[in-house]
Amino acid sequence: MAFASSIQFCSLQWLLILLCLGNTFSQSIVKTLPGFSGLLPFKLETGYVNVERSEFFYYFVESQGNPLTDPLILLQIGGPGCTGLTGLFNQIGPLAFDSSTYQAALPSLKLVPNSWTQIASIIFIDAPIGTGFSYSTCAEDYIVSSDTNTASMLGKFIRKWLEGHLRFKANPFFVGGDSYGGLLAPIITREIVEGNKAGLEPFINLEGYYVGSPHTDTNLEENSKIPYAYGMGLISSRLFERAKRSCKGEYLNVEPTNLKCLEDLAKISECTGNLNIHHILRPNCSLSLPMPNKDKQARRSIEETNSRYNRHRYLNFWCKGTVTEWTRCNDSVTYGSYIYDVESAIGYHKYLTDTRIKVLIYTGDHDMRVTHISTEEWIKSLNLTIDDDWRAWYINGQIAGYTETYKKSKYSLTYATVKGAGHSPTEYKKAECYGMFERWINNYPL
Considering only CA atoms, which of 61, 57, 25, 20 is closest in space to residue 43? Predict the structure, then answer.
């Protein structure tokens, strides 16, 4: 199951840049980047942290506010297998591609006005192993790479990272997760909680975690898509009611003898199958490309290239001690060796809501990959007390989405929808998401 973003990097040109960034020692300060004029107006550090036999590569952007007191965030991106650069350039980092220069030999970079690094220091991690520049010197480590193994490794990663960055030891610490990283974030957070309890050093000043468009429970997410499609006007009320009766609310694991249900699901698929499920209002690029006059030839070329590429990546997956080929989302991780050993992360959220930390969960209301319906359903299962009932929240006098807050003791869980956003919200509504984060991190209501 791939939770990679539909937005792709300009691979050829940026591979060259990434190789430049990748030629680092354990830590390197990057002061300039191709495509950006002059010195970077923020501190960017790249490097490796060794965890057992694995080398985790990271991009660290120091807060542009007060780095010695501002929050420190470890961000896990989705896929699994998508590089932390996705978060840095596409979501909450201080730089983005200038789309007006995409036809140039080298695309330009521009500063982002709503970067979360204005008020927080962020570690963008390449994880699990095999993602981005992260690698292992032992082939066995790729075989055992899994949800729980990755979370355990990243719990060790952050303590070792802090050992080399002791000036951030006292900063309030948060784990962030996006898309499939939303499943990993609470598992990583629990690793940190348990490590603190066990007296591991350095102690991590954990204050909370947040997840955006979080993959949490496959059954809930898949079964929510049909009610979501009806609610968004994508299927008729007649078809929806008929499918509810024939499938009895279970749309994922349908018995092959239930022909009425299968027929209804086929009709629903006809209505929704060609949508861009990451944002239902956006074009489905796989249908619009390549250009019509080169359609057959281009499609055949793409299919052949992808076939060769996937075989090449799989056969050379055990290359040890280096990263010979960089890709934004490594299919050899997503569809190959990675073990999906956590079917539902709800239990981790239940555990964490009993601890002394705060939580932010947000979704895009036009996301059909992980619908807001499924997220609201598992939040309800946590049996928390509503502290601030469902209401609109605003940015610049306009409704930015809807929110409600749950409370347990003095610590709270804030849930928010982001109006008009897809999967993931920070890619579509940067100003709104920045405002949401700024209020939450400073303990203000949305």
Answer: 61
Q: Are residues 151 and 206 in the same domain?
A: yes
Query: Across residues 284-296, what is the average pLDDT?
Result: 50
φ and ψ at residue 416, rounded to 5 degrees? -145, 140
The Cα–Cα gap between 443 and 166 comes to: 25
Which positions ≥6 away from 30 have C-beta within 8 Å? Answer: 21, 40, 44, 45, 46
Residues 55 and 168 both lie in one domain: yes
Based on the fold, state whether residues 70 and 203 are members of the same structural domain: yes
Tell me, yes or no, whether 48 and 182 share the same domain.
yes
What 3-state DSSP class applies to 395? strand
Within 8 A by CB and 6+ apart from 265, the residues are 243, 247, 251, 254
Dihedral sign (CA 153, 165, 86, 106): negative
Domain final residue, candidates 264, 296, 323: 323
Closest C-alpha to 85, from 127, 26, 30 = 127
Per-residue pLDDT reduced to its tens digit, 143-164: 889 999 999 999 999 999 999 9
Tell me if 49 sits within 8 A of 58, measured CB to CB. Answer: yes
pLDDT digits 0-9 by tens, 20-49: 444 434 679 999 998 899 999 999 999 999
Same domain for 234 and 199?
Answer: no
Q: Which residue has the higher pLDDT, 244 or 311?
A: 244
Which pLDDT score, from 0 to 100, does residue 286 have? 59
Mean pLDDT for the stretch of residues 386-401: 97
Task: List Cα–Cα distances, 401 to 211, 224, 236, 439, in angstroms.
Answer: 16, 20, 26, 14
The confidence band for 300, taking pLDDT boundaries of 50, 70 and 90, is very low
Q: How far apart are CA 197 and CA 191, in angstroms?
A: 10
- The confidence score (pLDDT) of residue 336 equals 81
Distances from the Cα of 255 to the Cα of 176, 261, 262, angstroms: 38, 9, 9
Q: Are 373 and 433 in contact (CB under 8 A)?
A: no
Q: Which domain holds residue 254?
A: 219-272
Q: Any idea which residues carry the catalytic annotation?
A: 179, 367, 423
Does residue 280 lie in a domain region? no
Alpha-carbon distance values, 228 to 290, 365, 374, 442 (Å): 30, 10, 9, 33
Q: By C-alpha distance, which of 30, 62, 31, 25 is closest to 47?
A: 25
> Could you tell me where the beta strands, DSSP code E, fall in 220-301?
none
Going by the DSSP 8-state scheme, the letter that residue 293 receives in this structure is G
